[in-house]
Amino acid sequence: MCTALEGGITYWCDEAKVVGDYLGEYAHEQIARGGQLILSDSEEGTTHELNKEKLLKGLELYLSNGGAAEIADGDTIDTSEVDAIAADEIVQYALFGDVIYG
Predict the structure, then answer these.
(1) Which one, out of 37, 49, 51, 61, has a CA that is 20 to 30 A from the CA of 22?
(2) Interacting residues of 9 by C-beta distance below 8 A, sequence separation 6+
(3) Range 11-35 burial, b when 16+ CB lie within 10 A, else e
(4) Could you read off the pLDDT of 40-60 as tens digits, one per residue?
(5) pLDDT tens across 9-36, in order?
(6) Is the pLDDT score of 73 beyond 80?
(7) What is the CA radius of gyration of the chain?
(8) Is-contact 12 18, C-beta < 8 A?
């Protein structure tokens, strides 16, 4: 989420708001700790709620659509290999079920 919020999704998402109290020091920690973010889609003028369940579904879709070669080695995901493009696609799959931007 840090990579997504610090560059991956910033070309279509102009704001990320924490729902409720911060569950960590930074907004990117919210999802991993069971919280939610509201992402503002600057292209459509809409907002989307992102939570852990949606993010995991986005990761699953990303991997099943060819992303595994970039970030996975067998059954293990190397999070250090998740660059801005991969982070963007994972979030888009989580919110939209497909990559619609970029």
Answers:
(1) 61
(2) 39, 87, 88, 91, 92
(3) ebbeebebeeeebeeebbebbeeeb
(4) 999 999 999 999 999 999 999
(5) 999 999 999 999 999 999 999 999 999 9
(6) no
(7) 13
(8) no
